[in-house]
Each structure stands twice: as C-alpha cells, then as structure tokens.
Design brief:
Length: 272
C-alpha cells in the first residue's frame, strides 16, 4: 500500500507521512534515509540548519529510489531571509541535495527583523524559475500567517509546527484549515514522550499498537502531515505502519483530550 497524499495550494501533492532527519548527520543519516526509502517512505524532511543535505542526497542515491518518486522538503535559515540570501540558500541546497528542484521550501523560523514581503518575493521568484515547486513556512503563529497572507505574494502551502497529542494546537489547526494551508507536525511523537501519557498508553495497549503509532495515526487521520525521525530500522518500520491504523470517532476524541500545552521546542529566537 502506498503513502496517502494531500493536495497543496500549488496543485502539487504532499505525502501524509514523511521522514524527519533532525540530528541525523553523516553516515548515520545516509543509512537512515536509505532505510526509510526502502521501507516505503517517499517524503524526506531536511533543513539548511541540520547540516545534512549532502548526507540525505547520498541516502537517496544509495536507496536506488528514483528522485521523481520522492518529495523533498528543506528549510531556509532565519538568519538569511533577505531576498539575495534566500536565493543563495536555495541554490546551495539544490547543489547539496543533488537535484534541480525542491518539492517544498519553507522559511524555518519567522524573523520579524527582516520584512516578510522580501522573503516571499524570493520564494515567488524561485517558484517561477522552477527551482522550487511549493513554498511554505514553519513555526508561524496565526499572527505571522495573517501578515504573510495579507501581502498575497504567492500561495503559502504549508506550515510546519510542533504538533502532537501533548501539544494540540486547535486554533492554529482551524485557521490553517480555513486558509487551506496544510499543517505538518514536527516532533509528532513528542520525542518519545507520548508513551508516558496514561490515556495514550492504555488506548495503545487496547489496540495492540505502540503509543508512537497511535499518536501518528491520530495526526494523519486529522490530515496533518507527520514527519517522525527515527534511526533504527525497527522504529522506521513501526512508524511507517502507523498510516494503516484506523481510529474510531471515540478513539479520536480520547486523543483530543490528551493536550497539556506541552511545547518541547522553544529556542530563544522563537516568536510564539
Ligand atoms: N521546523 C522545525 O523547526 C522543526 C523542529 C524540530 C523538528 N523538525 C523536524 O521534525 C522531525 C521530527 O521531530 P523530532 O526529531 O524533533 O522528534 P520526534 O520525531 O517526535 O522523535 C524522535 C525521537 O523518537 C524516537 N523514536 C522514533 N520512533 C520511535 C518509536 N516508534 N518508538 C520509540 N521511539 C521512537 C527516535 O529515536 P531513534 O532515533 O533512536 O529511532 C528519536 O529519539 C525532525 O527530525 C525534523 O525533520 C522540525
């Protein structure tokens, strides 16, 4: 069975399940990416800041999977959001990833000291030049999204944010739904912490699946793209299988009640 996909505002499709690569570098990254692609993942998430785009490219190469069957997301660093620097970062990513287009290029973090219109102009031009297929943002709040959308420069297709049962961002979820912005959940298993929640653990046991699988299944059933990171073949496969798990409306509601507003990623430059 293949990975389900969602349609982005750009008209391109994004696979609902992706493979996260934060903290994977060098040979470990190459091995994990190749393993993920051979398991059936078709979507890889990387970033300029992860310093692993070359290792990701080697993983793609080793897997033998055709580039045209893979969806690559990368992100430009918040310190280079000026027009020229965005173009520069994108060209460097294309070179490191050994490809002539990026499926989805995101602004990694908002940076209010650089006018967002300038960054969006660059993303628009990169789209026109076919260096990227779709553009989006990451770590944007509703306020940031409103500012960006008001400029009407190009379709903002995606917002990648921390999202898991312990941080259920309902308002952002509803707003993105209204604006047809696909949400991507990063840290979708709360870096393992979902297994410490009693309700999640009980329900997972009842369904004979893991707490991690239950959390990923809940997200994907909400039409939220999920990009768990894993380094062992066991975790890579376990997470892959989560897309074939169905939750009943009662089980979905139970998961909705697990929220604790528990944010794990909140660096000093965040504008939450
Ligand atoms: N846009 C942003 O600002 C941003 C921020 C953070 C993350 N991200 C992206 O989102 C991806 C995922 O987020 P994340 O890496 O922070 O956290 P995560 O995917 O929630 O958790 C990764 C951790 O969970 C473990 N794990 C994976 N599958 C497991 C399973 N089935 N059972 C038990 N443990 C399991 C992994 O261990 P092993 O490695 O040992 O398998 C790893 O320690 C990142 O890799 C990155 O691509 C984006």
């Amino acid at each position: 069975m293949s990975v389900k996909k969602l349609v982005l505002k750009s008209g391109y499709q994004i696979p609902l399940l992706g493979f996260g690569t934060y903290r994977l570098t060098g040979k470990e990254c190459t091995r994990a990416v190749s393993e993920a692609l051979n398991t059936g993942y078709v979507h890889i998430d990387t970033a300029v800041a992860y310093d692993n785009e070359e290792a990701v490219a080697h993983g793609i190469d080793d897997s033998g999977v055709n580039r045209s069957n893979i969806f690559i997301t990368t992100k430009i660093s918040r310190v280079g959001l000026q027009y020229g620097k965005v173009i520069e970062q994108c060209k460097s990513s294309l070179e490191k990833l050994q490809t002539d287009y990026i499926d989805l290029l995101l602004i990694h973090w908002p940076n209010s000291s650089i006018p967002i219109g300038e960054t969006l102009d660059a993303l628009h031009d990169l789209t026109e030049q076919k260096m990227i297929r779709s553009a989006g943002v990451s770590n944007f709040t509703i306020k940031h999204l409103k500012e960006a959308l008001a400029l009407n420069k190009l379709p903002i297709c995606n917002n990648q944010v921390e999202y898991h049962p312990l941080l259920n961002q309902r308002e952002l979820y509803e707003y993105c739904g209204q604006q047809k912005i696909v949400l991507t959940a990063y840290s979708p298993i709360a870096r393992g912490k979902v297994s410490h929640h009693q309700v999640i653990q009980n329900l997972a046991e009842r369904k004979d699946i893991s707490a991690q699988q239950l959390s990923l299944a809940w997200l994907m059933q909400k039409q939220i793209v999920s990009i768990p990171k894993a380094s062992t073949p066991e975790h890579i496969n376990e997470n892959y299988q989560s897309q074939f798990i169905d939750l009943t409306p009662e089980e979905m509601s139970l998961m909705e009640e697990c929220n604790r507003d528990e944010r794990l990623v909140n660096p000093p430059w965040a504008e939450f």
